[in-house]
Write a sequence for this structure.
């Protein structure tokens, strides 16, 4: 089909292409396949899970940490209620409850965040606070946080404005002392100050592709009023800050075992005052009203992590061996040995993966292609030898 113009003719396909080019110029994220209004409706879907059901879903993947799971379940539920609230005559507006999670490395902070992402029908982004610097310096600006959320929302601004962001390693941007910095601390206090309006709610011009790699790109305006922020950090040494506040000596007249137990569990008494002493500025803490904690994992919890969750390490290795038509069995005393070493390394749940990789690496190297091996039994002796020497001697052929 030919369309006649003033001085020339154009075919119908060229008309459609020209229309797409104009729409793309007006809106860089215009999608001809799915209009923005249709995608934006996804955020309006009613969330059917109540807090108890959200926690039950988290229990399938995360062992222990009931207090943290309860608080994050309530925060998510209230976030959805807030998004779907109707404007009432009394004009009561529900404010968002941004959260901060405190816990040692390997206790499950990031795992909880990733598990939550699986449950949600709003965009969810996980970012690392250590890559950000204050605007104008080498590094990423804090606005890049919203770039990740935009990407998760397939560049649908309306949908992104109702999403959830998890900021990991928030403790790494703490200032070095409790006194305000005279000079600019561009990777610490400066980043905290730059995040203030972001957390509270404001219009932010966001580089959709992130950073300064594309200076010619058009900025997209994103309102953060309805974006829920969840922060997490290890806060190494926070126990000493808490001990000084509650006037609890971690040495005293207790034996070494009692002292260690008390030090580990002091984190459950964390409050905003302790986090301020650690290095977070008061203005930032005021925008993170919900404070929760994750306790260090004990031997029972670590052993459960190996086998019980849906994505347990043993289930992952069992699946890997099944791909080679090999049945994996693990003796109970070998599990206990792995747990003991994880406690010794003090790496929490992540330590389990490191130890399992060291033990299983030789087996996973030699078994593929060997059709004679139909069964692999992981014994205590095999685990001990391969963790210390890295030699393969206990493969059992069945």
């Amino acid at each position: 089909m030919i369309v006649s113009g003033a001085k020339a003719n154009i075919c119908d396909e060229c008309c459609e292409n020209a229309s797409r080019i104009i729409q793309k110029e007006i809106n860089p994220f215009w999608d001809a396949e799915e209009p923005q209004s249709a995608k934006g409706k996804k955020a309006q879907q009613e969330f059917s899970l109540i807090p108890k059901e959200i926690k039950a879903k988290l229990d399938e993947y995360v062992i222990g940490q009931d207090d943290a799971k309860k608080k994050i379940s309530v925060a998510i539920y209230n976030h959805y209620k807030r998004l779907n609230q109707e404007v009432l005559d009394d004009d009561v507006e529900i404010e968002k409850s941004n959260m901060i999670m405190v816990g040692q490395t390997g206790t499950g902070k990031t795992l909880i965040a990733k598990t939550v992402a699986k449950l949600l029908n709003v965009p969810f982004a996980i970012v690392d606070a250590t890559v950000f610097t204050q605007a104008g310096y080498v590094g990423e600006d804090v606005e890049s946080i919203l770039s990740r959320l935009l990407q998760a929302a397939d560049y649908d601004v309306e949908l992104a404005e109702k999403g959830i962001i998890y900021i990991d390693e928030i403790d790494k941007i703490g200032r070095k002392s409790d006194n305000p910095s005279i000079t600019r601390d561009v990777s610490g206090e400066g980043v905290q100050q730059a995040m203030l309006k972001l957390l509270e709610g404001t219009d932010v011009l966001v580089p959709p592709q992130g950073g300064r790699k594309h200076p010619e790109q058009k900025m997209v305006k994103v309102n953060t009023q309805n974006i829920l922020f969840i922060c997490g950090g290890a806060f190494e040494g926070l126990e000493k800050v808490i001990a000084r506040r509650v006037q609890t000596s971690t040495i005293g007249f207790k034996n070494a075992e009692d002292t260690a137990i008390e030090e580990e569990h002091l984190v459950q008494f964390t409050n905003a005052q302790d986090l301020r002493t650690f290095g977070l500025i008061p203005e930032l803490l005021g925008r993170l009203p919900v404070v929760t904690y994750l306790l260090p994992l004990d031997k029972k919890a670590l052993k459960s992590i190996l086998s019980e969750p849906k994505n347990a390490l043993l289930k992952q290795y069992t699946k890997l061996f099944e791909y080679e038509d090999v049945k994996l069995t693990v003796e109970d005393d070998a599990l206990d040995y792995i747990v003991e070493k994880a406690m010794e390394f003090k790496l929490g749940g992540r330590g389990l993966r490191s130890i399992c990789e060291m033990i299983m690496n030789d087996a996973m190297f030699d078994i593929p292609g060997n059709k004679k091996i139909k069964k692999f039994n992981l014994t205590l002796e095999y685990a001990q030898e391969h963790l210390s020497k890295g030699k393969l001697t206990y493969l059992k052929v069945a």
Remarks:
- Residues 26-45, 249-253, 255-261, 390-398 have pLDDT under 50 and may be disordered.
